Amino acid sequence: MNIIGKPLNRVDAYDKVTGKAKYTPDLVSPHALHAKVLHSTIANGWVKEFDLSEAWKVEGVVDIVTCFDVPDIQFPTAGHPWSTEPKHQDIADRKLLNARVRCYADDIAAVVAETEIAAEVAVRKIKVTYEEYTPILSIEDAMKEGATVIHEEKPNNVVVHSSYEIGSFEEAIKEKGLIKVVGDYETPIVTHCHIEPANSFAYMEDGKIVVVSSTQIPHIVRRVCSQALGVGFGTIRIVKPYIGGGFGNKQDALTEPLNAYLTTRVGGRPVRLAYTREETFACTRTRHAMKFHIESYIRPDGSFAARSIEAYSNQGAYASHAHALVANSVNGFRMMYPVGAIKGEAYTVYTNMPTAGAMRAYGIPQIGFALEAHVDDIVAKTGFDSIKIRKQNMMKLGFVDPVTTITCHSTGLEECIDKGEKYLSYTKKRKEYEKQDGPIRRGVGMAIFCYKTGVYPISLETSAVRMLLNQDGSLQVQMGATEIGQGADTVFAMMAAETVGLTMDKIHMVSKQDTDVTPYDTGAYASRQSYVSGLALKKTAETFKKKLLEFAGFMLKCDPWDLDIKENYIVHTNKDERLLSVAEVALESCYSMTNSQHISAEETHHCTDNTYSFGVCFVEVEVDIPMCQVKVLDIINVHDSGTILNHQTARGQVHGGMSMGLGYGLYERHLFDPKTGRMYNDNLLDYKLMTALDTPDLHADFVETYDPTGPYGNKSLGEPPTIPVAPAIRNAVLNATGVAINAIPLHPQRLFGAFTDAGLIK
Amino acid sequence: MNIIGKPLNRVDAYDKVTGKAKYTPDLVSPHALHAKVLHSTIANGWVKEFDLSEAWKVEGVVDIVTCFDVPDIQFPTAGHPWSTEPKHQDIADRKLLNARVRCYADDIAAVVAETEIAAEVAVRKIKVTYEEYTPILSIEDAMKEGATVIHEEKPNNVVVHSSYEIGSFEEAIKEKGLIKVVGDYETPIVTHCHIEPANSFAYMEDGKIVVVSSTQIPHIVRRVCSQALGVGFGTIRIVKPYIGGGFGNKQDALTEPLNAYLTTRVGGRPVRLAYTREETFACTRTRHAMKFHIESYIRPDGSFAARSIEAYSNQGAYASHAHALVANSVNGFRMMYPVGAIKGEAYTVYTNMPTAGAMRAYGIPQIGFALEAHVDDIVAKTGFDSIKIRKQNMMKLGFVDPVTTITCHSTGLEECIDKGEKYLSYTKKRKEYEKQDGPIRRGVGMAIFCYKTGVYPISLETSAVRMLLNQDGSLQVQMGATEIGQGADTVFAMMAAETVGLTMDKIHMVSKQDTDVTPYDTGAYASRQSYVSGLALKKTAETFKKKLLEFAGFMLKCDPWDLDIKENYIVHTNKDERLLSVAEVALESCYSMTNSQHISAEETHHCTDNTYSFGVCFVEVEVDIPMCQVKVLDIINVHDSGTILNHQTARGQVHGGMSMGLGYGLYERHLFDPKTGRMYNDNLLDYKLMTALDTPDLHADFVETYDPTGPYGNKSLGEPPTIPVAPAIRNAVLNATGVAINAIPLHPQRLFGAFTDAGLIK
């Protein structure tokens, strides 16, 4: 390959660095109205009445809409492709504004005003009368007999309960000589912390409602808005410019449905609905807090005989992506070590907490922490070698998951482990660090993961791409797949250049999606785009190239089958002599007096394949026991994501994911008032996101396999880097101190408790 | 046909009436810089030097660029498709700013500033030193031996000289008994008077120069900008929103090339270049003033034995569309009465007048006036019946033009004449009015015309269209053809509904063109779109329908060939029972778990056909001889434009064209200072455009033929209505007064001279 694999600069680097790149706020009409949402000050109950009299008096107020005014339609918000089968459809459990309050800061009314300040002032002047119930914040409380019902459709507050069993667990554990290890693990509520808060801008034009939004999934948001308002898909138009990050939060309809409705209330005038950072924290989506109970039965040779998991996921107030995440967790539990009898059971439970949704790696960081902590707990109990036991039991090439049928078409996991081990001298240090005393101790830890590439066959994988020849022989590439900061446009441009035979400067990505004209794609999630949309792109590029060569053949009076394109020139297949430039073909195809052809191609790829990415994290920490501090001294992630499409941007992806993993393991969590359910730390001062000063040097390496199902041998890379970091740190702390801490983050309070219990602090 | 022909409301009516429709000024970034052009205060000469010192002192000035700074590239501006053959290419005779000044108000420098006022003030503070020559304002002066050369490439100031001869003119006039009639006719400089002045807005993004512009021809403007700046087509992006009229003025690159350059000077910051009404009058394009010398030889039976024409077209300072217009005039002369021997000769001549370009009906109103005045001069001299002589000699069905090969595939001209005659009781009144005296007299007049539909085979006719299925079964139609106020989107929507089998509410026109993603089409001119782009639309709609039925066949497990679409439902061909809704097909095609297909179609039509539209104007006037006033008492246009696609919008087209024809015949002309060449009446107070008070009731009628080459039997209608009005009025004045006036407009000064010469005023 000529271009794939090169460490090229991002195609959007210049515009982003110079401020030319347009984001949603840059596109807001200067005459836009401003909307503000009134959020409830209770977490559980009913809105009984509003007193709007003072609010209406605020100068500049154009409209006030309450939960009693909005259409009586329940709609789903999750960023999943729709299904025509009702049982596969997302749960429609919220209205545009809700009279039944289900979390603190639920959306109950909105003001539209000429200025942002007027809207803000008016919102504060709305008086609300509630009927209030005790907030249910924990899974345990929600599942209690007689608990207040949060959604009447789910009388026991369980959104979904699912289970599977591979082999017979009960039979398997009867085997003689098995060692049983049991553990309970817990992960916190954290959030995405994308730079650009949730915001959109809506207006009416051409008989349509247009919503310009910071979203990962314009085509899905179009469908959600049409469902929420009860209008046809074709009357909604979503425009997605550049966005300042999403990490899964924007894989959900956030401000768009309400904003689409608000503009219809004011005669189609433009309305801006921009959430503050505080609202983005408290009123969008979070990562699901989960609890896991794991039991393992190990044979004396280190092989797993039987494993079981029970998982509980705190959904919060509304379903959003609902059970898909914890299902992914318990599936990941099965796939990573697919040996012996395995059973899993999972619950997704409504509570009065903020709604949890998609977040980078979608349930796998949770199970990744639990499972890899548990493996080191097995190691601690059995004395097996921590690397050997993993290698022995982990997924191997050719594995077919018995539930999903997802197949391991390629794996470099063993080499990833070896690279990481070698980098850190893990085995040597691990032994060395096992017997320390003193207040400051060192430890090494590691964790592995597998991650599937896209969502097939659990859900639909489909993508369409269009290519359009410019008259100078350059190429427009128009995709429903979205650039969300991850570098998608750059690798798509490389793919297009590679397959058509052009140089990179000839590729123009149409970065902005506009559902009126952009080919359908479900969007950026599941690390699917370079694989699924990449396949659609490759298919389209091949069709496009064929059409281009047909016209070149017409010009050259030769069989197009004999022609190829190399570096912007038409050549005989396998020869280098330049017969014609693509620019000449383009000019003639447009302006031929006898045979003009405006060469374009548009193809759908209905993807019916999937594969696994793999990787490891190796980390060395220093634990200050009296200060209850963990310092990361060295850390490396090694990934098998198949062919690395662009080493520069891939490294960026890994660094970002590692940073998120470090925060997950060490600092990040949301804190809530246990009485009201109000989020305490809904800002970037109190929510402890990793800063540059907190971050050690991040090391990234790759083991490049060639996956036969990927368009260019590539597999998912976007989400995986965040997965193995937290368990690796936890395992390093265990190595350093002998203390197994089964919940994250490893903040000082938690360490103080654990070290105190272990007798390290007296 | 179910939809074609219905008098439906315009699809953009609601948005235009409510102010929701977006025009270029609505899209200007609030932080845009403002550009102003410095126009020369001489008409002929050289800029020797600028003193910019005072201009630079104006606060807010960001850049000043002069004719000495711009790229040394000459480029063409005409809205023609490009040709890869140099001899068919438009004349590249101007730079972005010109040191060689060729007309009063030529573009010589520009200022970019933070505010419009700062730009305006700075422009006024620029001091210019000129070398000045005597302005050449007339064709006669320009063609004089030793005249100053305006463009060095054309040392005799003749842009192009062309001629043709059908049969042998010299042989033909030897025939015995021929009556010779000679006449000289003259038409004035007039302008388009579109509501929205020339304006654009340029910035850089994604490595491209983006120009949002009020243009009829976005794809051509893209090419012109790339030529003017010497950069690849693919690095220019033109966006065309709704526009407030064009009438041919915006079938030229106007502000766009300079604005594209200006944004590159300021690091890609957005720059607005909005011409005032005065600049739009004086610095964009005008209708060519032409002079004609016609000789006719008529047999005693009224048939034409030989005809000749000599035509001179005043091009003004730059070539723009150049000779294409007067060539169209002398071709029209030949086509209208294609009998006997015919010869034509035409000159397009550079002068120091404002640049003439395209304007509604492109040379045909000029020849229409001369020719139809001349036919009534023949009638006056010979006593033949004015209708009979026309019917006898005019183009008939099956006519093939010997020069262009354009064929008459349909004609309703004879019925048009009969309808108009009957409406006005023309023959009866004509006789009655022949012998009046007294100061106030009445007269009737008529004129006929033919007009070709599109530019094939003189130039390239090509169009591409894309259709995209929405998930609710509605349809996006994306075309390079442009809505310029003429109602194109409405008839295209009707065509799409008709051919696919949907109702009108299911058709969503993507009205805005964006050369990055919009299929190629040369744009709105030559009354080509409903014919040429209509054919491309029909072809695309058929492909789209085929794909839709294929998917429906897959769902219904039957042969798609047996299926059809009627009013949004899939039916068995020729049956009415509804098998499935298109919405169901759309939903399944998007979300099928086994066979998702994002149904779209994109087709090019390379058009190799053309045909003629026809029509007449009949008018009755009252002439106040002492006051030298002409009042129109009754007027009707009757058109054969094939199938009328939408009777309501067609009627609007005819009314608009008639209004323009009335102005052309009675009021409109530009006046110039004979010493400097400065336009006197560059505003809507002094330029006498028809107002509502000046306008009589306008009557429009149609004779519907079915043209076999049109997509739905339709032929051109956009430009024709303006053609026959002025000669019909002139002929009515002749009928009323016996005075043949061979120049328009028939303003009081002209009538005073003519009536005085004729002895009617003493």
Provide a descriptive summary of the structure in words.
The first copy, chain A, has 762 residues and is of the alpha+beta class. The first copy, chain A, folds into three domains: 18-133 and 198-274, Aldehyde Oxidoreductase, domain 3, CATH 3.90.1170; 286-456 and 609-757, Aldehyde oxidase/xanthine dehydrogenase, molybdopterin binding domain (Aldehyde Oxidoreductase, domain 4), CATH 3.30.365; 462-606, Aldehyde Oxidoreductase, domain 4 (2-Layer Sandwich). Helix content of chain A is 28%, strand content 25%. Chain A has 20 helices and 29 strands. In chain A, the strands form seven sheets. The first copy, chain A, has an eight-stranded mixed beta sheet, sandwiched between helices. A five-stranded mixed beta sheet of chain A has the order 7-16-15-14-8. Chain A has a four-stranded mixed beta sheet with strand order 18-27-28-29, sandwiched between helices. In chain A, strand 9 and strand 10 (208-213) form a beta hairpin. The longest helix of chain A has 28 residues, at 529-556. The mean pLDDT of chain A is 97.
Ordered list of secondary-structure elements with their pairings:
The structure is a homodimer of 762-residue chains.
Chain A: H1 13-18, H2 24-27, E1 33-39, E2 45-51, H3 53-56, E3 61-66, E4 100-101, E5 107-113, H4 116-125, E6 127-132, H5 139-143, E7 158-166, H6 169-172, E8 179-187, E9 199-205, E10 208-213, H7 218-229, E11 236-240, H8 256-265, E12 271-274, H9 277-283, E13 286-287, E14 289-298, E15 304-316, H10 324-336, E16 341-350, E17 356-357, H11 364-382, H12 386-393, H13 413-424, H14 426-433, E18 440-452, E19 462-469, E20 475-479, H15 488-500, E21 507-510, E22 513-514, H16 529-556, E23 563-566, E24 569-572, E25 578-581, H17 582-591, E26 600-606, E27 612-624, E28 629-640, H18 647-666, E29 699-702, H19 725-737, H20 748-757
Parallel strand pairs in A: 1-12, 10-11, 13-17, 15-16, 20-21, 28-29
Antiparallel strand pairs in A: 1-5, 2-4, 2-6, 3-5, 7-16, 8-14, 9-10, 9-12, 11-22, 14-15, 18-27, 19-20, 19-26, 23-24, 24-25, 27-28
Helix pairs in contact in A: 7-8, 10-11, 11-19, 15-16, 16-17, 18-19
